[in-house]
Design a protein that fits this description.
Layout: H1 3-24, H2 43-63, H3 68-74, H4 79-96, H5 102-120, E1 127-131, E2 134-137, H6 138-159, H7 169-179, E3 191-192, H8 196-210, H9 216-232
Parallel strand pairs: 2-3
Antiparallel strand pairs: 1-2
Helix pairs in contact: 1-5, 1-6, 1-8, 2-4, 2-5, 2-6, 6-7, 7-8, 7-9
């Protein structure tokens, strides 16, 4: 994996945290009780989940490659079975989290997530876990976390009645795919790493998002890429708060 792609993924990772924090300050006390695209979760619940999952990423890295996540993935269970088990874990962690206001959860999330981003740089190529013979590196897992931050930023934005898309949807989609081989075919070399493909895909995304003179077709391609990720992650791209 090239240093450029590592830098690009980590930059997008940090952007996802920043956007979540920027959205969080737009919530009133009442708005934190509003529904989100995540079924059965209010905005404050989503904030709590973010806090929990950021801490989980630290735990998985501490214990890699024999963490509880690694042991679960090593079973090779089908994706739907893994999703149900992880959903139960998320629900249990959220239930155990002491009640707190949304801003408190987001502040704790941001501190934990930024610390994780600093930790992964030097461990990038280390194995994190494996799934059906495909090794997921620490860098690939960081890419998955990057995608998760941007997806949850969209969830928060929709809860506010707004829309959101990352500056580089192609990179975020590639990072998500590299970190979640259970949801798609593994790479030819048997390793899922946030690598050169993510860096190459990001070039088109940077052009469309960063250049105000980019053509309509490039913008449409980026939009379609983001819609692809929203749908693949189980979200309804047209969800709106009722």
């Amino acid at each position: 994996m090239s240093r450029v792609s590592r830098a690009a993924i980590l930059a997008a990772y940090r952007d996802g945290i920043t956007v979540i924090c920027e959205l969080a300050v737009q919530f009133s006390d009442a708005a934190w009780l509003a529904p989100t695209p995540c079924a059965e979760w209010r905005a404050v619940d989503l904030a709590g989940h973010l806090r929990c999952v950021a801490d989980d990423y630290h735990e998985y890295l501490d214990d890699a490659p024999v963490s509880r996540l690694a042991r679960l993935m090593a079973t090779g269970a089908p994706a739907d079975s893994l999703a149900r088990k992880l959903a139960r874990q998320n629900a249990a962690e959220l239930a155990a989290l002491p009640d707190g206001p949304g801003p408190e959860h987001i502040s704790a999330f941001a501190e934990s997530a930024r610390a994780y981003g600093r930790r992964v740089y030097t461990a990038w190529e280390r194995p994190h876990h494996s799934y059906r013979g495909t090794t997921v590196t620490v860098g690939a897992m960081a890419g998955l976390a990057c995608a998760e931050w941007h997806l949850h930023a969209w969830d928060l934005a929709r809860s506010l009645g707004k829309d959101y898309r990352p500056a580089d949807p192609a990179l975020v989609l590639a990072a998500w795919r590299a970190g979640a081989p259970q949801l798609q075919g593994a790479g030819q070399d048997g390793t899922a790493a946030a690598g050169d493909s993510a860096a190459g895909d990001s070039a088109a995304g940077d052009s469309a998002a960063g250049d105000s003179a980019a053509g309509d077709s490039a913008a449409a391609d980026d939009s379609d890429t983001w819609l692809t990720l929203l749908g693949a992650s189980g979200r309804d791209p047209v969800w709106a708060r009722m």
